[in-house]
Amino acid sequence: MKNFGFLIFLGIILSIHFAVNYYIYHRGAQWLTTMPSLKIAFRFLMLVLVISYPAGRFLERIWYSPVSNTLHWIGAFWFAGMLYFTILIFATDLVRMLNYFLHFLPKSGTEAFNNLKLYTGIGIASVGTLIILGGFLNAWHPKINKYDIDINKIVKGKKNLKIVAASDIHLGTIIGPRKTYKLVESINALKPDIILFAGDVVDEDVGPVIRQNLGESLKKLSAPLGIYASTGNHEYIGGAERSVKYLEEHGLVVIRDSSYLIQDNFYIIGREDRDKSRMSGSRKEVNELTSALDKSKPMIMLDHQPYNLEIPQAAGIDLQISGHTHHGQLWPFGYVTQRIFELSKGYLQKGDSHFIVSTGFGTWGPPVRTGNRPEILEINLNFK
């Protein structure tokens, strides 16, 4: 039954993929009536763009190579291209529809019309390319977001705790050695007491992570109180057991529906990702994870997907760190995630519980961010 549901989902995604690309191809071919010598090259380019991502993802599972990497990168960039070229072309079509009633454009077939058509196509291609390039550069420059949070609990011998956290790293073909090195260097430079990763450390299949030996960089992370992580939906998409094993072999402690008492001072609780229920059974409720804990001690929870914030609030969680949303990653999807989640990014206090949702460090799909900056969290907890 699950396989049947997945096939339906895959069919829907592929249908949308091909429909959007046909729209771009059809309108591009109309534009190239002004430059007919480019039509054959344009058809070949569109064919490569359409098949590159699925072909690259398939190939890297059986033959990880420069060929599979190149196809993966081309296809990933084209996801952003599909979005922004569709928006730009659709905006042009709206102008054409308006012209049907108001007749403010040159008449079809005239030299003025052909020139307008030519320069409109050049403008769309140029603007779309610049947006993608700008989003790519933005995705490579994470910022440090700082939070100072007061926890109304006394911790003997400790007045504050410096947490450095990240989510949605998506280690794999796109987030490779250079970006992983940048993550490690940036985190270590903040001199954290403890490092926390709120899910999606691995981007689906752990194979490219292993082949690029990204774990060697992770082993260089340094924090006196340790490095802890929770699972995310992408660990489950690619096979959680294999991903978790690899991460734990390279210095991370992955907390799966359990908790750790750190120096008899505070708890780190890690929830299994909610997608576990679709893949391999249910996860524990928050109350199950906290029922046996000493609630006079601070409780910090990693829960990848920030749904139902009232539940950890009712359970007395002091701080929950989440990710998953990417706050849309690509504009305008941030407006969608704001409607889905009570907190799509940033900070929220509900009663005595504090919530932080990260926009994430890496990217999923296109290596492009146009809706926000990638980030690392520096969280200073003050105990009172």
Q: What labels would you give this structure?
A:
12 strands; 6-stranded mixed beta sheet; 13 helices; 47% helix; 384 residues; alpha/beta
Structure description:
- With 384 residues, the chain is α/β, with parallel strands linked by helices.
- The chain is built from 13 helices and 12 strands.
- The strands form 2 sheets. Strands 1-12-2-3-4-5 form a 6-stranded mixed β-sheet. A 6-stranded mixed β-sheet has the order 6-7-8-9-11-10.
- β6 (258-262) and β7 form a beta hairpin.
- It is elongated and about 80 Å long.
What proportion of the residues form beta strands (DSSP E)? 15-25%
Unreliable stretches: none
How do the SSEs run, as a string of H and E?
HHHHEEHEHHEHHEEEHHEHEHEEE
Look at the structure and give the mean pLDDT.
95
Shape: elongated
Distance between the termini: 52 Å
Report the helical percentage.
Answer: 40-55%
Count of discrete alpha- or pi-helical segments spanning 4 or more residues: 13
Q: What class would the helix/strand composition place it in?
A: alpha/beta
Radius of gyration, CA atoms, in whole angstroms:
24 Å
Q: State the major sheet.
A: 6 strands, mixed
Which strand order do you get reading across the main beta sheet? Answer: 1-12-2-3-4-5
The count of strands amounts to: 12
| Oligomeric state of the chains present here | single chain
